[in-house]
TrEMBL record, chains A, B:
Protein name: MarR family transcriptional regulator
The keyword DNA-binding is assigned to this record: yes
Organism listed in the record: Simplicispira metamorpha
Alphabetical list of SMART domains matching this protein: HTH_MARR (SM00347)
Highest taxon of the lineage: Bacteria
Region spans: Disordered: 1-22
UniProt keywords, alphabetically: DNA-binding, Transcription, Transcription regulation
Length: 165, 165
DNA sequence: TATTGTTATACTCTATAACTATA
DNA sequence: TATAGTTATAGAGTATAACAATA
């Protein structure tokens, strides 16, 4: 979390000193800015960067918040379903779930109808933390998109979903 | 490039066999879908996934395309400027530039006014490849956002820039 | 035979510290 | 002193192959 990444370049207000302001001579990014991929990536890095900062308060990575929130709204969800929903490969979900279980935020119970699977559930502690984190996420939404009106924000989400759905 | 990532889940058309379709029982993602960050990330993964496939034809990674395009429109740009523009840390830009130089796509010349810096320029081969790749990128834009009207596409880009600018 | 969950492992991406040479 | 570029390296994220247990 430092140096280049996700920092709102703040070129000092150019206080008319005699320094030739080596700052960052203007770079032409006009072509890249016509590409949806470039803009979507920059916007997601910006929002998710703020997301990371706010979730760090709870000791959660972004993907861990996503897992907890999905478990909260889908009690008994399987590892396989979490993988498919979040585009995480099964071997990488193992450690993710193990870490949340070690912290006592979730627990795994045998799946009622499928002996191979384990259903994931929130513990009371996990439910409390998730509720808090979801509130933080809702507030963060406002902050991260402060330059958008409520209508613009809804339009943005609708168009993004149209792209990936 | 396989399994989970960026594949447009294609649950076979459910040909009315007697199989109980274990597929992927519906998961409630309604809360995550209210978050700009979640939607922006999924959309960017979707578009950039296609970007990766198309750029692979030229043996280019997405970030390499970005570097070439920036050099094309900013001849003599420095490594430092590329880093700042693309959110890549200086140590990681070294290998990136070295690889493009080894392929004969770019060349570095001493900066005219700053003895520490090197200006990056396209070779004729690099210029030809970049022109082709930029055309591919323009076409890809249409394909990746096929579900959007021209107006919606412009709106989407405008709103994304409003978020990260 | 196919699928869930798992281990082990490799590869890529990203980040930090420290050095050099110029400014 | 500060900056551009570099080296070496550490860490996180993402990928594949292969296995056991169950369907």
């Amino acid at each position: 979390m430092s140096s280049t990444r996700s920092r709102k370049k703040t070129p000092p207000p150019a206080a008319c000193t005699d320094a030739p302001a080596p700052a960052t001579e203007a770079v032409d990014t006009s072509l890249l800015r016509t590409l949806v991929g470039y803009n979507a990536r920059r916007a997601s890095l910006s929002v998710i960067g703020l997301f990371m900062e706010r979730m760090a308060v709870y000791g959660l990575k972004v993907v861990e918040f996503s897992v907890l929130s999905l478990v909260a709204h889908n009690p008994g969800i399987t590892s396989r379903q979490l993988c498919a929903t979040l585009n995480v490969l099964p071997p990488n979900m193992v450690g993710l779930i193990a870490a949340l279980e070690r912290r006592g935020l979730i627990e795994r119970r045998p799946h009622p109808s499928d002996g191979r699977a384990m259903g994931v559930h929130l513990t009371p502690e996990g439910a409390a933390l998730t509720a808090q984190a979801e509130q933080t996420a809702a507030q963060l939404e406002q902050d991260a998109t402060a330059r958008l009106t409520a209508t613009e924000r809804k339009t943005l989400i609708r168009l993004l979903q149209k792209v990936y759905d």
